[in-house]
Amino acid sequence: MRFSLLLSLLAVLLLASTQLVSAQREWSKDDIEIFQLQSALEKAEGPGTTFYSIMNLTKSATAAAIKKNYRLRSMELHPDKHPEDPKASERFKRLGLVNKILRDERRDRYDYFLSHGFPKWRSQVGGLSGFYYSRWRPGLAFAIAVVVLVTCVLQHIIQRINYERDTKRLELLTEHAKLQAWGPSFRSKPNGVRPERKVRVPLQVDPLPAYNTDPIEEERTLKKLLARGLPEGPKVDMKISESGLWLGDGEGNWEEIGTHKLEVPSASTLWPVKLLRRITGPPSGAGKSAEKAYDEASGAAVAVSKSGKKSSKKE
């Protein structure tokens, strides 16, 4: 996959994944009082402390239970009972404020934030201080990881599609080359009796009929196919033997082709792995060959098409 495309995808995903902290909402005076009291309560009593827990209540407590527990807790936390604690007065004052909120209509508002989360005080966010909900903001490393993952998935899909297409094309050409070279009984002929031959094979060919275990019927079917002659359209020069298949360029040069030369798409064929191999050190001769294997093998199928075009022009 081209690096220009990768850079474009990187830029798009970076923009899409950048999430700013949400702007401050128009909180009411009661909302702000609840936020401030909740923040002070957690700071003094510990994270997770709520209006209900400081009163030894549950969220479903009735008004009568709130009134009763407030009397009990106010006696427990009264500053006169804790003369040695300099923060006793502040604690007792917070208890009174909690009691007032839980005993009027502000309780519903508190319950809402208790269920959905409390915004936190933040200074100079976007130039303004206030209560903001914390939002997760993916960093550059995360954005790059997403880009790498997405491009690798897309590259693998494209490689897989190309591999299956090239495999099918080469298998069809090989079958038809064998039919042209060795006749209708080529499937049943044993190894060692099929000589090397040069043939012309149409580029646009249909799959041969499925193999028939009855040799007589098999040969009859393929004879009929041969009797029709070669279909119209571009053709390529091919040389076939029991050891392989070669494509001619019309100038006396032959290039070996075949499905065995196609590299199956895998993790090692993805661009990050290839890039890492190039960065970590100079590749050996074998390394260069392995690195080019997929492109060269896939290019063989393309070369077939190009050769066919040349042949059609000559004809």
UniProtKB/TrEMBL annotation:
Region annotated Disordered, chain positions: 280-315
Keyword annotations from UniProtKB, A to Z: DNA-binding, Membrane, Signal, Transmembrane, Transmembrane helix
Mode of membrane association: Single-pass membrane protein
Residues that span the membrane, as ranges: 139-158
Span of domain J: 50-114
Principal location class: membrane
Keyword Signal set for record: yes
Gene3D superfamilies referenced in this protein's UniProt entry, alphabetically: DnaJ domain
UniProt-annotated location(s): Endomembrane system
This protein's record includes keyword Thylakoid: no
Gene Ontology MF term list: DNA binding
Signal sequence interval, chain numbering: 1-23
Biased composition (Low complexity): 297-306
Gene Ontology cellular component list: endomembrane system
Protein name (database record): Zuotin and related molecular chaperones (DnaJ superfamily), contains DNA-binding domains
InterPro entries reported in the protein's UniProt record: DnaJ_domain, DnaJ_domain_protein, J_dom_sf
